[in-house]
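Pilot study result, target chain (162 residues):
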Amino acid sequence: MAATHQFSESNGAGEVETIPVANLNFGSNDSAELNTTTYPITRGDASFEKYLRAKFTGVFTEISNMKFWKSAGAYVTGEEIKAAANATYAQPSATPNADSVIPTTEGTALSMQSAEGAETIEYGASGVSGYTKYLRLQLQTTGSTPAGAVNTKTFTFQFDEV
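Predicted structure:
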């Protein structure tokens, strides 16, 4: 049996985890799988931050070389997605953060660590699952961003399994 993974999203002051998440819609509310029509982002504002992490289960020896990047989807004018790997969870905020723009190639991808801060996730003797550290994402806009929906984006999470 091989390793499998699911993404979880954490929200709120008390960190409520939703796993798995079906979408990564950014909006003006701190919730998982939100409806962007109900919670749109006003031009010039930022979305609430998204705190994601991958949970690995199954039978594996080691997960390593974990990388995350935006692999497809054009930005509209004035739009950026900021990202930080290996973040510490904090209650998500809509205040624009100073993270870097998410990389767009595997060669510049964000390098992810295990929840313990190691470069690998090792399978425990008891068969327990393993998490990555948090990935913090936030969509930021300017007054130049056109009204309406932005383009769909594709994110890639890649890892090696032994």
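One observation from the pilot: The chain has one domain: 4-161. A full batch analysis is planned for the follow-on phase.
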